[in-house]
Design brief:
The protein has about 270 residues and is α+β, with helices and mostly antiparallel strands. It folds into three domains: about 5-85, SH3 Domains (SH3 type barrels); about 90-145, SH3 type barrels, CATH 2.30.30; about 150-270, endopeptidase domain like (from Nostoc punctiforme) (endopeptidase fold (from Nostoc punctiforme), Alpha-Beta Complex). Helix content is about 15%, strand content about 35%. The protein has helices spanning about 5-10, 150-155, 175-185, 195-200, 245-255; strands at about 25-30, 30-35, 45-50, 55-60, 65-70, 75-80, 85, 90-95, 100, 110-115, 120, 125, 130-135, 140, 170, 170-175, 215-220, 220-230, 230-235, 240-245, 265. The strands form seven sheets. The chain has a five-stranded antiparallel sheet with strand order 6-5-4-1-7. A five-stranded antiparallel sheet has the order 20-19-18-17-21. Strands 12-13-14 form a three-stranded antiparallel sheet, with no helix packed on it. The longest helix is centred in the middle third of the chain and has 11 residues, at about 175-185.
C-alpha cells in the first residue's frame, strides 16, 4: 500500500529520494507550527503541527526552513527550523481544547505558553493539581485527564470555533482538521485532507437518505459529520465557524454555489 507520505510527495511532485530513510528525528517545540507546501516562510499554511508532534527532517534550507514529514499523519512540507527541537517521549496529551503551561504550580502564576488539544507533552511528575514537566513549567492535571465519548462528541466541542484554512486548533480550524482531530481523540488515526479522508474508507458508499449519526459526508474539497437526523456538523467558510445545521439545507447550498454534489458518504465501520 502506498504510504501517506508517498501520496503527499506525489501530490507535491517531491522526488522519491527526498523521503529516503535516515532523516533527523525531531519534535515540535512551539505551541503551533505552520507547515507549508512552499519553501518560503511567507507561504500559506497547508496545515499546522502541534507541540510534541514528531517530525522527520529530510533537509534544511539556508532561509531557516526544514523540509520533512509529520510522523503523526504523514503530511510532507516545510516548517521553520526554529520550531523544532529534540525528539521527546510523550507521556501526557492535552485533552482540553486549550490549556497553558504555568511557570509555577499555581493558577495565579505567570503563563509560559498556550497549548492545544492533542498536543503531546514530555516527561512529567504529577503533584497536587499540576503536572511538573521535565522541560519546565506546569500543566493543570485536569487538562490531561483521559478523554471520554465518541468522535461526534469531540467534534461538538469545537462548535463556534472560527474557520481557518489550514488551522488545526481551537483558535481556528478547517473542515478536515475538525474530522481528523475528533477521530484522533477517539483513538482513530485519519489523514489530514478531505480527499485523503474520503479515500481512506473501504466498502460501499452510503446513500444520502440512509445517513446516520457518525457518517462522514464528502464533497470535492469539503467534509462534514452527520450529527443527528438531518443534522450536519462542519467547519465551513460560509459561516466562518464550526456549526451544526440542517443537513438538507447545507447540502442544497453547497451543491448550488460551493462544492457541488456530494461525492460520497462513508461509515466508520468501513474504516481501514
Amino acid at each position: 500500500m502506498t504510504s501517506l507520505a508517498e501520496k503527499f510527495a506525489s501530490r507535491l511532485q517531491v522526488p522519491p529520494d527526498r523521503l529516503a530513510a535516515g532523516g533527523a528525528g525531531k519534535s515540535v517545540s512551539v505551541p503551533v507550527l505552520n507547515l507549508t507546501t512552499g519553501p518560503s516562510p511567507d507561504s500559506s499554511p497547508a496545515t499546522q503541527l502541534l507541540r510534541g508532534e514528531p517530525f522527520t527532517v529530510y533537509g534544511e534550507a539556508p532561509n531557516g526552513m526544514s523540509f520533512g514529514q509529520s510522523n503523526r499523519d504523514g503530511y510532507v512540507g516545510f516548517v521553520l527550523s526554529s520550531g523544532l527541537g529534540e525528539r521527546i517521549d510523550p507521556q501526557y496529551r492535552i485533552t482540553a481544547l486549550r490549556s497553558h503551561v504555568y511557570s509555577e504550580a499555581d493558577i495565579k502564576s505567570r503563563t509560559l505558553s498556550e497549548v492545544h488539544f492533542l498536543s503531546e507533552m514530555g516527561e512529567g511528575t504529577p503533584g497536587g493539581s499540576f503536572i511538573a514537566l521535565k522541560s519546565g513549567g506546569y500543566v493543570p492535571l485536569q487538562h490531561v485527564a483521559p478523554l471520554t465519548g465518541d468522535f461526534v462528541d469531540h467534534a461538538r466541542r469545537f462548535l463556534g470555533v472560527p474557520y481557518l484554512w489550514g488551522g488545526k486548533t481551537a483558535s481556528g480550524l478547517d473542515c478536515s482538521a475538525l474530522v481528523q482531530l475528533s477521530l484522533m481523540a477517539a483513538g482513530i488515526n485519519a489523514p489530514r485532507d478531505s480527499d485523503m479522508q474520503a479515500a481512506y474508507f473501504s466498502g460501499d458508499d452510503i446513500p444520502a437518505n440512509e445517513a446516520r449519526l457518525g457518517d462522514l459526508v464528502f464533497w470535492k474539497g469539503h467534509v462534514g459529520i452527520i450529527s443527528g437526523p438531518d443534522r450536519l456538523l462542519h467547519a465551513n467558510a460560509h459561516h466562518m465557524a464550526v456549526v451544526e445545521e440542517p443537513f438538507s439545507v447545507a447540502a442544497a447550498r453547497i451543491a448550488e454555489g460551493e462544492y457541488g454534489a456530494i461525492t460520497r458518504m462513508a461509515r466508520l465501520s468501513s474504516f481501514k
